Amino acid sequence: MPLWRGHSPELRAEVKACAARLRAGFEGAGAAPVECPILLPAETLLDLYGEDIRARAYVTSDALRGEQMMRPDFTVPVVEMHMAGGAEPARYTYAGEVFRRQEEDEARANEYLQVGVEIFDGSDPAAADAEVFSLVLAATEGLDLRAATGDIGILMAAVGGLDTSETRKAALMRHIWRPRRFKALLDRFSGRAAPPVSRVALLEAEDPFATAGPEIGLRRRAEVEARIDALRADAAVPPISDRQMALIDAILSVRETLPHALEQLRDIAIDMPSISTAVDRLAARSAALTARGVDTSRLDFEAAYGRTHMEYYDGFVFGLYAETRPDLPPVASGGRYDALTRVLGRRAGRPEGIPAVGGVVRPGLVVELEGGA
Fold first, then answer.
1. pLDDT at 338
2. Residue 101 burial by Cβ neighbours in a 10 Å radius (0-12, 13-18, 19+)
3. 108 pLDDT tier (thresholds 50, 70, 90)
C-alpha cells in the first residue's frame, strides 16, 4: 500500500524527510519554493474538468466561500498564483498533501505527499520539457524506473486537421482524454457506427413535438428545438473519410522507442500535414533531451499515452514506473499544460497565458521502493 496515513510515525517521518530532500533538490536547480492552499474553489475545478472532478475530489462547502474542494493536485493553484503576479520566466517547487477519492481500489491511497517542479517559460518549450523530465529523472535516480512518454498535442493536431465540421472537431477535442467516448464519436462521425435508432426517428419526424407529452423538466421548448436543429445539421455533415480514419488509427498505434516513433510520425505527417508542426516539436524535444544526457534510443514513446489520467495536459506527457511493482501507480509523472494557463490566465486578465510544464514525484512511493516499508 502506498505510504502515508496508517503507517508508523517513524515511517511517516521518513516520507516527510524524503519530500524535503526532493524539494531541496528542485530548489538547488533554481526553483523557488511556494506554498498552496489545501481548500480550492470548486467552481474553478468544475469549469476546467466538468462534473468528472467530483469522482476523485473531496467536496465541502462554506457559508461564505461556497463549495470548495480539497486539493487534488498542485498545478491549478500554482498556475493561479503565477498568473496573479509572477514574472517570467519562473520556476517553482512545492511539497504537500493531495487528496484523491478512491471508490474502486481501496489499496490506493486517498491522501499522500506530492513534491513537484513547474516551469513557466515560453522562450524554448522543448528545452523546458527536457529540463523538467531530467530533473524528475534525477530525483528518482537509483530506483530503476521505466520511463514512458507521449505527446497529446499530436493527436490534438490530427483532430484539428480532419475534414469535418468544427462542431464535430470540438466534440472530439473534449473527449481526447476519454478514449472510449473518443472512439465512439469517431466511429459515429465516420459512419462505422450507426446513430441511435431513437435519434434517427426524432430527426426524420416532420414534427418532433406532434406526439410529445406535456413540457416538463428544466429545458424550455426553444432549447429543445435548438438542440434538434443542431442534431439535424450534424446529420448532414459528410462522414470522416476512411483515409483520415486510417491515419488517426496509425497515430494511436505508434508505440516505439522515441527515434523510431519519430520516424513513423514523420511518415504519417506526409499524408496528414496538420500534425507536422507537432512532430517538429517532438523532434526538438528529442534533441533537447539528448543534450541533457537522456538516452532517447531507450526512451519509450506512445502516442496514446496519458489519455486516461492527464486531462489538462496538451503536449508532452511522461510517467516513471517501477516495473517490478506493477501494483503501484506512477512514481513520478508530468507534462505540458499550455492550454490550462490560457484558461486561468483569462480570469487574471492575461488571456495569452504562458507556456508551462511540470512534474511531480510521490515521496511515499520512493521510500517504499527504497525499502522503507
1. 92
2. middle
3. low
Grid cell at residue 307: 489519455
Query: Whole-model pTM?
Result: 0.86
Task: Fill in the amino acid letter for 319.
Answer: G
pLDDT attached to residue 215: 65
Given pLDDT bands bounded at 50, 70 and 90, which one contains residue 103? low
Q: Which three cell numbers stand for residue 174?
A: 473534449
C-alpha cell of 333?
509523472
Instruction: Give the whole-angstrom CA distance, residue 243 versus residue 345.
Output: 38
Burial of 348 (0-12, 13-18, 19+ CB in 10 A): middle
Q: Is 22 left (phi over 0), alpha (psi -120 to 50) or beta?
A: alpha
CA distance 152 to 302: 10
Which among 146, 180, 197 is positioned nearest to 307, based on CA atoms? 180
Nearest to 21 by CA among 125, 159, 123, 113: 113
